[in-house]
Amino acid sequence: MKRYIFAKIFHLRYFIQLSYNGSAFHGWQIQNNAPSVQETIEQALCTALRLDTVAVTGAGRTDTGVHASDYYAHFEVKAELPMVPTALTKSLNGILPDEIAIARIFPVAPDMHARFSAITRSYAYRLYREKNPFLRGRAFHFHKVLNLQKMQAACQILFEYEDFACFAKSNHGASTTLCTIYQAHWEQQGNELIFRITANRFLRNMVRAIVGTLLEVGLEKITLSDFRNIIETKDRRKAGFSVPPEGLYLTQITYPKNFDQHANTFNTSA
Asked: What is the DSSP secondary-structure string of 209-223?
């Protein structure tokens, strides 16, 4: 009787920490006949590693024109990298367009997942009040007078709820519209207003719809009571407009502690 020995194939998983200017891309996810961040990185990895295909999985989808100042993705290879991660980082930065920058690449446990292992995500939305050509494409020019105090009060109302269906696209595709918000507030920095929000998960278009509705509170088109009622209706048609994508930044993703034992600068949960 013949005996067959089957060797188990181990895949080595690596995380990529990166940032990108979304102006040149139709979002993170691969699109038909349109440039995406995911496809651009996959092509660069194929070139650097001399492989036919490399699948890259991102921490989440960002829409067309949305930026990320701190983003994570992962990929797998069947054998050790042909170069150390620092050399691969340098190689990729030489291949990739100026709109994408790789901060570092590091090995992780095979069960760590850029999307599903994430604990929280944080976004910032930037508004600038006076015309500024250097912020064009990187923030939303909104010059109307706002009641910032009421906008801050509306932010506190967000903590009272978990179902944010009213701020999601009708075709969001999520199995649930429940999210836990940990942080939501406005900051004023000179000519800019910045909305910051952290949650365990976000629905498609959620942050842009929240900001648009908060602006309507600031314009005193709707009251704080109206804002609460909008959330309770779970109806997107009741909420405010969706602000443009160029002001939105994914700014931080947290993961379980100590999963990256090769660096101590990684963003981890408390």
From this structure: HHHHHHHHHHTTSS-
Question: Could you give the angle at which helices 148-158 and 206-218 cross, rounded to 10 degrees?
Answer: 140
Residues 6+ apart with CB under 8 A from 131: 141, 143
Model confidence band, residue 81 (pLDDT cutoffs 50, 70, 90) = confident
**Residues 40-54 pLDDT 10s:** 999 999 999 999 999
- In the predicted structure, residue 87 carries a pLDDT above the cut 60: yes
Q: Are residues 17 and 91 in the same domain?
A: yes
pLDDT 10s digits, 219-264: 999 999 999 999 999 999 999 999 999 999 999 999 998 666 544 3
235 catalytic per annotation: no
- Residues 136, 44 share a domain: no
| C-alpha triplet 226, 231, 118: angle, nearest 5° | 140
Phi, psi for residue 184 in degrees, rounded to 5? -160, 115
* Token digits of residue 215: 């602006």
Q: What does the angle CA 146 – CA 181 – CA 196 come to, to the nearest 5 degrees? A: 40
Q: Catalytic pick from 52, 63, 163, 235? A: 63
Q: What is the pLDDT of residue 219?
A: 98
Same domain membership, residue 133 and residue 99: no
Distances in Å between the Cα of 59 and the Cα atoms of 89, 148, 250 are 19, 32, 10
Q: Is residue 102 domain-resident?
A: yes
Structural domain range at position 126: 120-250
Element (H, E) at 233: helix 224-233
